């Protein structure tokens, strides 16, 4: 099996149980009170961390293809949608378990706490990208319009990293590394791509959640 075939041997659907296994573990551990002194907050934070990790992985697809000839474009939709699932779970834990659907308190948090405002903004940016990660949306929006919409993921990823930085407050290494990786991966997109004469046009349907170039 050649290297190019090796990277695409796994079917796209198989990534969903792989990526979502940590969420199952986290919910089970929280239910068994195995996430430390504050399992609810640990669950909420770790779901958000997994969302950031998957967003970073999605942003890395294009640089890996350009610099290492590792073509993971086939899996970008699964990566992006899995990231959005984690973002949604992170939000649901906050709304249903942390705030117990106290919409007044939630609104006050959004207005008064910058990290909540930034996190909600990132979620609202990612939601239409998840909804339109399909071929029908590409046909409706047009390939160029679809790509422009999905570039919102760049802003959403930065906002997600800032959200994490503001939550931890003490400036530990991990959120700084996430922020640095996102900035680095976005900066790599400014480097012009070199196309070989026989290169094929990529299918935008695999460019889920905005990492279309």
Largest sheet: none
Low-confidence stretches: 196-201
Number of distinct beta strands: 0
Strand content: under 5%
State the order of secondary-structure elements, H for helix, E for strand: HHHHHHHHHH
**How much is the average pLDDT?**
87
Distance between the amino and carboxyl termini: 28 Å
Helix count equals 10
Class by helix and strand content?
Answer: mainly alpha
Q: Indicate how many domains the architecture comprises.
A: 1
Helix content: over 70%
Task: Categorize the overall geometry.
Answer: globular
Q: What is Rg?
A: 18 Å
Short description:
With 213 residues, the chain is an all-alpha fold.
Keywords:
10 helices; 213 residues
Please provide a written account of the structure:
With 213 residues, the protein is mainly alpha-helical. It has one domain. It is 70% helix and 0% strand. It has helices at 3-6, 15-31, 39-68, 76-98, 103-112, 114-131, 135-141, 143-150, 152-168, 173-188.
Topology:
Blueprint: H1 3-6, H2 15-31, H3 39-68, H4 76-98, H5 103-112, H6 114-131, H7 135-141, H8 143-150, H9 152-168, H10 173-188
Helix pairs in contact: 2-3, 2-4, 3-4, 3-9, 3-10, 4-6, 5-6, 6-9, 7-8, 9-10
């Amino acid at each position: 099996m050649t290297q190019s075939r090796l990277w695409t041997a796994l079917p796209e659907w198989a990534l969903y149980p792989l990526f979502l296994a940590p969420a199952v573990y986290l919910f089970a551990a929280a239910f068994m009170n195995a996430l430390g002194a504050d399992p609810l907050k640990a669950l909420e934070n770790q779901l958000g961390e997994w969302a950031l990790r998957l967003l970073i992985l999605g942003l890395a697809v294009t640089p890996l293809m350009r610099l290492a000839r590792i073509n993971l474009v086939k899996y970008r939709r699964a990566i992006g949608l899995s990231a959005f699932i984690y973002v949604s779970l992170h939000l649901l834990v906050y709304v249903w378990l942390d705030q117990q659907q106290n919409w007044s308190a939630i609104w006050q948090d959004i207005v008064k706490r910058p990290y909540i405002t930034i996190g909600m903004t990132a979620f609202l940016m990612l939601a239409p990208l998840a909804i339109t990660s399909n071929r029908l949306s590409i046909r409706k929006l047009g390939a160029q319009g679809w790509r422009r919409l999905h570039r919102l993921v760049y802003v959403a990823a930065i906002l997600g990293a800032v959200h994490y930085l503001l939550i931890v407050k003490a400036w530990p290494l991990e959120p700084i590394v996430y922020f640095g990786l996102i900035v680095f991966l976005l900066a790599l997109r400014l480097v012009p791509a070199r196309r070989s004469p026989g290169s094929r046009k990529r299918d935008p349907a695999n460019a889920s959640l905005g990492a279309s170039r």
